[in-house]
UniProtKB/TrEMBL annotation:
Residues 67-321 form the Dehydrogenase E1 component domain. GO terms for molecular function: magnesium ion binding; oxidoreductase activity, acting on the aldehyde or oxo group of donors, disulfide as acceptor. Residues 350-377 form a coiled coil. Its cofactor is thiamine diphosphate. This is Pyruvate dehydrogenase (Acetyl-transferring) E1 component subunit alpha. SUPFAM superfamilies: Thiamin diphosphate-binding fold (THDP-binding) (SSF52518). Pfam families: E1_dh (PF00676). Gene3D superfamilies: 3.40.50.970. NCBIfam families: PDH_E1_alph_x. GO terms for biological process: branched-chain amino acid catabolic process. InterPro entries: Alpha-ketoacid_DH_E1_comp, DH_E1, PdhA/BkdA, THDP-binding.
Length: 377
């Protein structure tokens, strides 16, 4: 028997009980209909020239870092490298929007964000080299390990932010994820917990168009990824991910909101992955050269350089110095990466648990016996 066949079905109305009311007014949570922009608008006047020049220098340095790391994969010095070329504005802005006491939770593509936050460039690549589990001390730098599984770093960021608030620590966590990661269950769990707990965390989704070869249209039917925030009860912000000042402003505002107890924010930065997914990917199989070229004309470095030059905040000497600084960084990176790192196979067991389990001790003893036997031979 269906509802329509029940007695009194004519008066049946599928409406909520009278006591129902929205938990949150959705209107203030909705993102703007178009990505927020600063470059080319009067909003640039509100930025300190020193910040704009620093953003530019970091973008140039980041572009060179991506190119050098990609070259290292071809030389066999890196096993794999997920380039963030074209996405440098998101990477740099994420790092500069945080205070020293805050935490950054990067994905595998966000090595540049970690470097812009102050992490040693070689240490940022150690995981991708296959030498160590992480390659750096997360507590020292307040940068969580680069997360290769999609979106698993997001619940970790929420947990840290929630714990910090319970302890009374003035700490904000900023978690970075790609558009493909928004299709994972961890994304839902993280945003749901963050909103319910009002945790001081900011989620930055770098919408670069593809989850490897899968375009965004095959991942979601939402108006934008920023709209997903409304369903969890947090604000959604949509920003031009190639406009460095705009990304910095939106993230800074979200961080400040979280710090003063306003809860989480979901920021979608619309950008584009110029290079292939990794050096193991053939991007020509799922996108055309025309699409890539169109995004090259919306390059974050060119956009910011043009704006600063037009406003008299950057001259040829400033461009040259930024390029030279980037080349110096790349040369040092090459030199250090071309040196064979001293490797101890026993390090495999050193940083798995604070106290080794019986199984790990057994495995370590077995490996030690095999190494000793090879040494005797």
């Amino acid at each position: 028997m269906t509802v329509q066949e029940l007695p009194g079905a004519a008066s049946y109305r599928p409406t909520p009980p009278p006591a129902w009311k929205p938990r949150t007014d959705p209107a203030p949570l909705l993102p703007d209909p178009e990505p927020y922009r600063v470059l080319g608008t009067d909003a640039v006047d509100g930025f300190a020239p020193e910040l704009l020049r620093r953003l530019y220098a970091e973008l140039v340095r980041g572009r060179r870092y991506n190119a050098q790391a990609t070259a290292l994969t071809k030389q066999g010095r890196l096993a794999v490298y997920p380039s963030s070329t074209g996405q440098e504005a998101c990477e740099v802005a994420a790092a500069l929007a945080l205070e020293d006491r805050d935490w950054l939770f990067p994905s595998y593509r966000d090595t540049l964000a970690a470097v812009a936050r102050g992490l040693d460039p070689v240490q940022a690549l150690t995981l991708l080299r296959g030498d160590w589990h992480t390659g750096y001390d997360p507590r020292e730098h307040r940068v969580a390990p680069l997360s290769t599984p999609l979106a698993t770093q997001l619940p970790h960021a929420v947990g840290l932010a929630h714990a910090a608030r319970l302890k009374g620590d003035d700490v904000v966590a900023l978690a970075m994820v790609g558009d493909g990661g928004t299709s994972e269950g961890d994304f839902h769990e993280a945003l749901n917990f963050a909103a319910v707990w009002q945790a001081p965390v900011v989620f930055l989704v770098q919408n670069n168009g593809f989850a490897i070869s899968v375009p965004l249209a095959k991942q979601t039917a939402a108006p934008s990824l920023a709209h997903k925030a409304v369903g969890y009860g947090m604000p959604g912000r949509l920003v031009d991910g190639n406009d460095a000042p705009a990304v910095h402003q939106v993230l800074s505002e979200a961080v400040a909101r979280a710090r003063r107890g306003g809860g989480p924010t979901l920021v979608e930065a619309v950008t584009y992955r110029i290079d292939a997914h990794t050096n193991a990917d053939d991007a020509t199989r799922y996108r055309g050269d025309g699409e890539v070229e169109a995004w090259r004309n919306h390059d974050p470095i060119r956009l910011l350089e043009h704006e600063l030059t037009e406003r008299g905040l950057l001259d040829e000497d400033g461009v040259r110095r930024a390029g030279e600084d980037a080349e110096t960084m790349a040369a040092r990176l090459r030199e250090r990466m071309n040196a064979d790192a001293p490797l101890d196979p026993m390090d495999l067991f050193a940083h798995v648990y604070a106290e080794q389990t019986a199984q790990l001790r057994e495995q370590a003893a077995q490996l030690r016996a095999e190494l000793d036997a090879e040494g005797d031979a």
